[in-house]
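User: Need the bound-state model for zinc ion:
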Amino acid sequence: MSFAGKQARAPILVFFVLVLSAVMGAEPVPGFQSLEKIDAHLHVRYNGPEFLNQAASDNFKAVLIVVDHGDLPQQLKFIERQKAIHPNRFRFVTSFPVDRWNEAGWEQETLRLLDESFRSGAIGVKIWKNVGMELRDKEGRFVMIDNPRFDPVINFIEKHGKTLTGHLGEPRDCWLPFDQMASESNRRYYRSHPEYHMYQHPDFPSYEAQIGAVERMLEKHPKLRYVGCHVASVEWSLEKLGQMLDRFPNIAVDLAARIDDLQLHDREAVRQFFMKYQDRLLYATDLEIAEGQNPQAVCDRLHSRWTEEWKYFSTDQPVTIQGTEKKVQGLALPAEVLKKIYQTNARKWYPGI
Ligand SMILES: [Zn+2]
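Assistant: Bound-state model below.
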């Protein structure tokens, strides 16, 4: 067969594959490059162009999330700078500080800050695990997310049609000793962050108290649009996570930094879970770039995470579970499910992307 003959056959083959998949009713699985994807959970603490250039070259849009951790005003400045460089490559989720919780003016000041952020384009508001794990009231008790003082703030978010994005609680591993943790990445994280390793702080709220507070908050706000970060800290049980999604139709979850936790479950059970809850899951990584880091190294890590996880969701090939030697077979999700998880769910749960 001549080279020219081979070339002529390729389009015919593509045509037959398309006809066959149309007859079978299944869309062909898109390529990594061809599908416009959204990473629904990234952080930027720097002024350079590289991070979002990488997103552009991998056909990703980004949701950049601001966190009430340290330098909140500075993070908003980084966002403004990124807007000037990449006006259409990302949208952002704002946040608000709780360090003046015990002062009378906290609520008014918070509503003013949120109003300002919405005017400058924020599509949602992030609440972080410092609520539930650090913040205390005047009596020294932990302040949880179902505290009534949060209600006017949550009502304000709802009234403006914005999404509440909650990283509340932690993976269940956080309450376990190192040798009983399920995930290698959790073990690594708590070794370097003993302040958040709840097993070492038995006087802090329990795992059940954290999840219970979120559920009570959701009961009070049935019309709020809520995205639970890190699969709403229910990564250890697909059954429990499914029950939570069934109970609260107004919530979705992002997969940020918990794909390796999900990979520890039975592959068929995970696949069925993704099929059943295909409208409620948002692809996300939680990767970050900060000043002082080597942008090229961070972009390489971002690219490799994106391509490796795409392989896990879109093919049945073996992929390595992050931070381990273990391999797991890819989920080979159908095209329409991939498109939801990588794109349309983020648009639906974060209007304005
Ligand atoms: Zn994050």
